[in-house]
Amino acid sequence: MSRGYWSRAFPIYLMILPGLLYFIVFKYVPMFGIAIAFMEYSPFQGVMKSEWVGLHHFRRLFAEGDFLLLLKNTLLLNVLDVFIFFPTTILVALLLNEVKRRWVKVPVQTILYAPNFISWVVIVGITVLLFASGSGGLNQILADWGFGPVELLTDPKYFRWVWLFQNIWQGAGWGAIIFLAALAGIDPTLYEAAVTDGANRLRQLWHITIPSLRNVIVIMLILRIGHIMDLGFEHIFLLQNPLNYKVSEVFETFIYKVGLLQGDYSYSTAVGLFKSAVGLTMVLLVNRIAKRLGQEGVF
C-alpha cells in the first residue's frame, strides 16, 4: 500500500484500535480458558498439570437432574423476550417517529431512555419496597382497603411477567434507538408520493415505514436469537428466591452457584461453553433462513 494511503487511513485505524484491543483482551484471549471444560481443573495444579477428562463434564450436564428445568426456564424467558420485548422496541420506535412536535418528542424520548441507566439492583429494590409480602407499600395499601396482598415476588406464576415487565420498562426505549436511526434514513419523498396518492398515516406505516425497517429488524432479530441462552445474570439473580426457584433457575444462575460458590470451575466452564455453542448454532441457522427468504442477514 502507498504511503499516501497510510497517511489518510492512519486516523481511522487509530479510532478502531481501542475497540480492537477490547475484543482481543476481553473476548479472544479468555477463549483459551475453555480448555478447562475438558479437564478436572485444579487452581493449585494449573491448566498444564490438571487431569484431562474429555467430555465428562458435558455428559454430566446432560445427566444433571435439573438440566431440563434449566433449559425450559431459559427458553421460556427467551420466548417472552423475542416475541414480546423485541416487538415492543419496534413499536416504541414507530410511535416516537409519528410524534412530529419536537417539544413533545424530546421529553418523551428522554423519559423512555432514562430507565436504561438505572441498575437492576435499584429496579428490583424498588419492586421489593412496593410488593414485599409483609412490608411492601402497595400491599399495605391493599390491606388497608380490605384486599389480600399481591405476592409478585414469591408466587412462581408471577415471576416471568415481573421479569418481562421490568425488562420492557428499562430497555424498550433504549432498544428503539437503532430503529429510530433506520427510520430517519427513509426517503421523505416516499411519504410525499403516498400522500399524493391518498394514503393515510396507517397506510404509509404499513407500506413504507415497516418495509423500510425489514432488513434492520431481521439483523437485530438474528443477533437477539444468538443470545437465546443468555438472559442476564444480575436481573434474574436479584429476583430469585427459594419460593420461585422452579421457574427462575436458569443457566446463568446455575453457573454462578456451581462455579463460584462450589468452586467446580471445569463443570461451570462446560455449561458456559454449551450455552455459547447453542447461541452460535442459532445465529448460523436463523441467518441461513433469513437469506433463504431473501433478506440480507448478518453475513
What characteristics describe this protein?
299 residues; mainly alpha; two-stranded antiparallel ribbon; 2 strands
Explain the overall architecture.
The two termini are 27 Å apart. The model has no long low-confidence stretch (mean pLDDT 87). It is built from 15 helices and 2 strands. Helix content is 72%, strand content 1%. The protein is globular. α4 packs antiparallel against α11 (201-225) and α9 packs across α11. It has helices at residues 3-28, 46-49, 56-63, 67-98, 102-113, 120-131, 137-144, 156-175, 177-184, 188-196, 201-225, 233-239, 245-248, 251-261, 265-292; strands at 39-40, 51-52. The chain is mostly helical. A two-stranded antiparallel ribbon has the order 1-2.
Largest sheet: 2 strands, antiparallel
Output the radius of gyration. 24 Å
Helical stretch count?
Answer: 15
Could you state the order of secondary-structure elements as H and E?
HEHEHHHHHHHHHHHHH
List the topology elements.
Blueprint: H1 3-28, E1 39-40, H2 46-49, E2 51-52, H3 56-63, H4 67-98, H5 102-113, H6 120-131, H7 137-144, H8 156-175, H9 177-184, H10 188-196, H11 201-225, H12 233-239, H13 245-248, H14 251-261, H15 265-292
Antiparallel strand pairs: 1-2
In short:
The chain has 299 residues and is mostly helical. It has helices at 3-28, 46-49, 56-63, 67-98, 102-113, 120-131, 137-144, 156-175, 177-184, 188-196, 201-225, 233-239, 245-248, 251-261, 265-292, and strands at residues 39-40, 51-52.
